[in-house]
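User: Hi! I'm working on a homework problem where we have to compare a predicted structure to a textbook description. Could you give me the structure for the chain below?
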Amino acid sequence: DEYGTMTSDGLTHVIPSFTLECGETLTDVQVRYRTWGKLNAARDNVLVVCHALTGNADLASWWGELLGDGKPFDTSKYLVFCGNILGSCYGSTGPLSVNPTTGQRYGVDFPAVTVRDTVRAHRGAVEHGVGGRSVYCVIGGSLGGMQTLEWAMCPEFVRAVLPIACGAYHHAWQIAVSEAQRQALYMDTNWAGGRFEQSSPPSAGLALARMIAMISYRSHQTYNDKFGRSEREGGLMVAGGSEAVVPSVARSGPGYGYFKTKQYLEYQGKK
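Assistant: Happy to help. Predicted structure tokens:
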């Protein structure tokens, strides 16, 4: 559940003209990425790591224990590449980016992008930004796993893939959960049809949407094992080395305890 400090730091590969699967063409598309290690003489030792939906290009902040000399993402053997997905708010072109044509932020006018669009953009960064001739392996989990599967469609460029915790497409249940999340966002009065002021974002709707997401990320048994019916009376909840103050909730009778499950969801929503 935990990422490190979320930043948009990194290098930038710019694509002058990029046509999306939906048919729209974007200009001056930015792909934010970071690398660790060095290319070998053959330039074929690129290891691509794909982040999940809420991640960024700073692999070291969320899978750092796997990164380094002699570790699974061995920087003494590979040039490790991690790119930020299109549509993100962590460096790559997305709704918060300025449309070069209008001089205004894209906002809700930003076109629909696909996993394939992101992988095409990241391949461009690997080839032309980093200088890689081929990719040794691609690995990623969740949405990163879906990107990994898409990379597998480039057998002339990618030698191996390792997708984790993902499917080839969204099933009806996943589509339904995503729609409930969107509706939570739309129902926030600050949403304003998507043309909200940056000083008054739809934070409540976004928090609820993330709570819904966090429920779907864990199974019934996992929730039971992690939290059970344990209660807290407020105070500090420690997560990932940081402390978040959670206010006490008054009881009004049996069954109104402050369950740890509730506290967990509130913490995730406030993130």
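For your comparison, note the following. Confidence is low (pLDDT under 50) at residues 235-253. The longest strand covers residues 25-36. Good luck with the assignment!
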